[in-house]
């Protein structure tokens, strides 16, 4: 089965041409045979096998010339990207065995954790679409992805000795002081307008909110790049709370405490003895306040 992956995702096989709507792009022509995805007619032809494991790059399309292949190590980011592409192609073309939803979504999440350090993202699966892969919001070819992610030291340079799983547990447990220092270290290592830089500053904005430093919370939220913000309404509300909830008086304090509970379940548990009374006091006025926060946050970043 030979196929050319271009903007319209044109698949040519069995003497017929079928077009599927999609934005996955490629500069090469590929052949799928059983569990192999092979590039044809390129100076360097990637070959991936799910059965035998690993990915190879051949100088030319010659499956018998094993001595000419250069191994792309299994477990590398390039390997995982190609695995995902093959799994999606097999699913659309119904080439058995077909990956289930959970398997594809698990692999996509794992890939996106690493790809975000390069400003690359794989979008959620859509019907009859191989995949959407973007670099800084623009569609990118598979060959360019493989070139960009070849240097995996970039990830280690940013993360260093920080255990990201442990860091996220600290946030989930409401240990904001401990998490703050680690996120500030990450902030120093990334561009603020990058995908991961935006993620870091979103967390810092939330942490500073919990730690009652609303000025720094606003500062971090404003550093976020709108290109990488998934939910602009939520972002505007967050920023609006940091701008408005520092006003003097009992009302602002109650609203801030209530929103803190919405942001973090551990914080909610920490005030369990006060929570029911807090809800009674705040719920009647919260919808109007949230709308004000959204409008204030939107206005703050509109210029």
Give an account of the 3D structure.
With 303 residues, this protein is of the alpha+beta class. It has two domains: 149 residues, no CATH class; 141 residues, Alpha Horseshoe (Serine Threonine Protein Phosphatase 5, Tetratricopeptide repeat). The protein has twelve helices and eleven strands. It has a six-stranded antiparallel β-sheet, with helices on one face. Strands 9-10-11 form a three-stranded antiparallel β-sheet. Strands 2-3 form a two-stranded antiparallel ribbon. Strand 6 and strand 7 form a beta hairpin. Helix 7 packs antiparallel against helix 8 and helix 8 packs antiparallel against helix 9. It starts with a strand and ends with a helix.
In summary, what is this structure?
This protein starts with a strand and ends with a helix.
Write the layout of secondary structure elements.
Elements lengths: L1 E3 L5 E4 L2 E4 L9 E5 L2 E5 L4 E5 L5 E4 L11 E3 L4 H17 L7 H15 L4 E3 L10 E3 L2 E2 L2 H7 L4 H7 L4 H9 L3 H14 L5 H16 L3 H9 L9 H13 L5 H14 L1 H6 L1 H29 L3
Antiparallel strand pairs: 1-4, 2-3, 4-5, 5-6, 6-7, 7-8, 9-10, 10-11
Helix pairs in contact: 1-2, 5-6, 6-7, 7-8, 7-9, 8-9, 9-12, 10-12
């Amino acid at each position: 089965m030979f196929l050319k992956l271009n903007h319209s995702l044109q698949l040519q096989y069995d003497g017929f041409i079928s077009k599927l709507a999609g934005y996955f792009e490629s500069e090469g022509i590929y052949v799928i045979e059983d569990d192999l995805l092979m590039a044809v007619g390129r100076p360097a032809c990637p070959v991936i096998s799910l059965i035998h494991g690993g990915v190879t790059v051949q100088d030319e399309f010659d499956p018998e010339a094993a001595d000419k292949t250069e191994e792309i190590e299994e477990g590398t980011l390039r390997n995982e990207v190609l695995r995902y592409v093959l799994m999606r192609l097999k699913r659309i073309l119904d080439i058995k065995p077909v990956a289930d939803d959970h398997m594809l979504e698990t692999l996509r999440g794992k890939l996106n954790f690493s790809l975000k350090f390069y400003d690359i993202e794989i979008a959620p699966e859509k019907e009859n679409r191989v995949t959407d892969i973007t670099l800084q919001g623009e569609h990118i070819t598979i060959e360019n992805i493989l070139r960009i992610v070849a240097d995996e030291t970039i990830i280690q340079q940013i993360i260093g000795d920080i255990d990201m799983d442990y860091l996220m547990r600290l946030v989930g447990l409401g240990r904001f002081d401990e998490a703050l220092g680690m996120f500030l270290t990450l902030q120093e290592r990334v561009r603020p307008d990058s995908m991961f830089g935006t993620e870091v500053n979103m967390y810092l904005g939330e942490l500073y909110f919990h730690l009652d430093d609303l000025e720094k919370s606003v500062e971090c939220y404003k550093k976020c790049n709108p290109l990488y913000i998934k939910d602009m309404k939520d972002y505007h509300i967050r920023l609006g709370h940091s701008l408005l909830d520092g006003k003097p008086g009992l009302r602002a304090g109650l609203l801030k405490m209530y929103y803190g509970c919405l942001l973090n379940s551990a914080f909610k548990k920490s005030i369990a003895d006060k929570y029911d009374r807090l809800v009674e006091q705040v719920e009647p006025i919260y919808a109007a306040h949230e709308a004000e926060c959204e409008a204030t946050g939107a206005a703050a970043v509109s210029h």
